[in-house]
TrEMBL record:
<protein>
    <submittedName>
        <fullName>Carboxymethylenebutenolidase</fullName>
    </submittedName>
</protein>
<dbReference type="InterPro" id="IPR029058">
    <property type="entry name" value="AB_hydrolase_fold"/>
</dbReference>
<dbReference type="InterPro" id="IPR002925">
    <property type="entry name" value="Dienelactn_hydro"/>
</dbReference>
<dbReference type="GO" id="GO:0016787">
    <property type="term" value="F:hydrolase activity"/>
</dbReference>
<feature type="domain" description="Dienelactone hydrolase">
    <location>
        <begin position="21"/>
        <end position="229"/>
    </location>
</feature>
<dbReference type="InterPro" id="IPR051049">
    <property type="entry name" value="Dienelactone_hydrolase-like"/>
</dbReference>
<dbReference type="Pfam" id="PF01738">
    <property type="entry name" value="DLH"/>
</dbReference>
């Protein structure tokens, strides 16, 4: 039986307070750093599994807890919690996660990758705009409007987006406009993939049943290859 990926719950300083997260380490104990940003459901088993899967690929993966331990599978409650998270607070917490990961002896890279889903996909772009040279690669999956910056001029990371053609939460037309805005304002390397699926097609725990295993496998393999090329 294969040995499980070492993982642990961690605390780190963020905006003068104590924040929490889930840290997954590769079998070697060290590797390039990647931040994993949660959906509006909270720091769920699915997000922890994403961190574990990245660790199995050789990354040191940190999933910060944006909701302070709160988890739900109810869409209405999740929407309320997302709306109650001020974007500046989420950005501050994630900035603390960047400093924590870059300061870790386990992290071998001088810059980080960041990957996020739904609400987390929006905050991926916020973090890339906010942190500039500290972020080498940003991977938003079907990021909704929450957390998305108005201005992408601060982005220095290469960006690989994964969006759905039949997304009821974030229409594909908006994703295409965003792709062009990022390319125009940042001058960064930008590549968006569009899939014939629905919102949250990568989430095998999604209550709406939008999970598509073939699309999820393809998108995640692209993301891992991209992170390995840009961060490792």
């Amino acid at each position: 039986m294969a040995e499980k990926t070492p993982h642990q719950n961690v605390t780190f300083e963020s905006a003068g307070t104590e924040a929490h997260g889930y840290l997954a380490l590769p079998e070697s104990g060290s590797g390039p750093g990647v931040i994993v940003i949660q959906e509006w459901w909270g720091l769920t088993d699915h997000i922890r599994d994403v961190a574990d899967r990245l660790a199995a690929q050789g990354f040191v993966a940190l999933a910060p807890d944006l909701f302070g331990g709160w988890i739900t599978h109810d869409g209405e409650e999740a929407g309320r919690m997302m709306s109650e998270l001020p974007e500046e607070k989420g950005a501050e917490l994630l900035a603390g996660a960047v400093d924590f990961l870059l300061g870790s002896e386990a992290v071998t890279s001088s810059k980080l990758g960041v990957i996020g889903f739904c609400m987390g996909g929006g905050f991926v772009l916020q973090l890339a705009a906010q942190q500039g040279e500290k972020i080498a690669a940003a991977v938003p999956f079907y990021g909704v409007g929450q957390g998305v910056p108005n201005d992408f001029s601060g982005v220095r990371a290469a960006i690989q987006g994964h969006y759905a053609n039949f997304d009821d939460f974030y229409p594909v037309e908006e994703a295409r406009k965003q792709e062009e805005q990022i390319r125009r304002e940042s001058g960064a390397e930008v590549e968006y993939f569009y899939y014939d699926g629905k919102h949250a097609f990568h989430n095998d725990e999604n209550p709406a049943g939008n999970y598509d295993p073939q699309l999820a496998k393809l998108a995640f393999s692209r993301a891992v290859d991209f992170l390995r090329a840009k961060v490792a």
